[in-house]
């Protein structure tokens, strides 16, 4: 059944709103037809945004009696994210713009994930981003798409990004969150860490924003061809994560995907010491069971 704005009236969080939309729109196609969805949810029109330094905007009032989305011209994937972000502001009535009647959002706003508890504006921007990410990459659709990709591999990111029509970074973020294996994906530029997206079970990543990619990393070994994921290579875990003294270190793999303009993604994938052994034990048990069954026949 097509969703309408009334259906979302009681929802306040991005997660709740998206889950309601997905309930009503159980056959939502991928890539999500975001502009169509906006119109269905009472966005009247889209206009090009020309204000320097801003990616998107929303013209509306406090009752949300009308809504126009403003979006900067550019890559389709980026436009789609901006549109979804502005729809998020529109659907969350507790979002109040700095200037009456108009939200204006910058590139930094579009990347904001965390917020200081006390900063209302930061919190709104982070919520609009969570909404955009969830509606363009609906978790049930992503989980389905990840099914053939049980072993983490950076080569999946460009493919999935194309399928969902989102940027590689937006996909990297969702991939790190939703992959069944603990991974972390770092966005780097000119050898420095810009952002890090990680699975909830992945340990704390030591190099922080602005820090150089560690000297011993695969990133610095050889030339990485653009738009081709390198083979995964084992690395010293201490390069990226803290290994407590006396504890057996997990096995850590790195993979690099070089992009243009000095950007590169680095994926870290963890295998716990027992994971391999446990898998071996399971295989062995399985072979015994099969063996016994065989004998009985
Ligand atoms: Zn915003």
TrEMBL record:
Membrane-spanning segments: none
Coiled-coil spans in chain: none
Listed name of the protein: IrrE N-terminal-like domain-containing protein
Pfam families per the UniProt record, alphabetical: Peptidase_M78
Residue intervals of the IrrE N-terminal-like domain: 68-173
InterPro entries to which the protein is assigned, alphabetical: IrrE_HExxH, Rad_response_metalloprotease
């Amino acid at each position: 059944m097509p969703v309408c704005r009334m259906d979302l009236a009681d929802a306040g969080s991005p997660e709740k709103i998206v889950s309601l939309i997905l309930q009503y729109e159980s056959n939502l196609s991928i890539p999500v037809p975001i502009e169509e969805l906006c119109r269905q949810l009472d966005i009247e029109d889209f206009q090009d945004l020309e204000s320097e330094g801003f990616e998107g905007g929303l013209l509306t009032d406090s009752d949300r009696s009308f809504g126009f989305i403003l979006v900067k011209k550019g890559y389709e994937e980026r436009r789609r994210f901006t549109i979804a972000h502005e729809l998020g502001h529109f659907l969350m009535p507790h979002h109040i713009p700095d200037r009456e009647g108009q939200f204006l959002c910058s590139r930094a706003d579009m990347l904001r994930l965390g917020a200081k508890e006390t900063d209302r504006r930061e919190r709104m921007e982070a919520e609009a981003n969570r909404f955009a990410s969830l509606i363009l990459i609906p978790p049930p659709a992503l989980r389905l798409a990840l099914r053939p990709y049980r072993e983490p591999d950076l080569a999946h990111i460009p493919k999935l990004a194309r399928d969902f029509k989102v940027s590689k970074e937006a996909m990297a973020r969702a991939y790190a969150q939703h992959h069944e294996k603990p991974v972390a994906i770092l966005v780097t530029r000119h050898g420095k860490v810009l952002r890090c997206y990680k699975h909830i079970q992945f340990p704390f990543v030591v190099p922080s924003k602005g820090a150089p990619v560690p000297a011993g990393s695969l990133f610095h070994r050889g030339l990485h061809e653009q738009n081709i994921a390198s083979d995964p290579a084992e690395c010293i875990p201490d390069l990226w994560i803290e290994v407590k003294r006396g504890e057996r270190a997990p096995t850590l793999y790195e993979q690099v995907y070089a992009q243009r303009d000095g950007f590169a993604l680095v994926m870290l994938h963890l295998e716990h010491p027992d994971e391999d052994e446990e898998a071996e034990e399971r295989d062995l048990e399985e072979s015994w069971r099969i063996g016994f069954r065989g004998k009985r026949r």
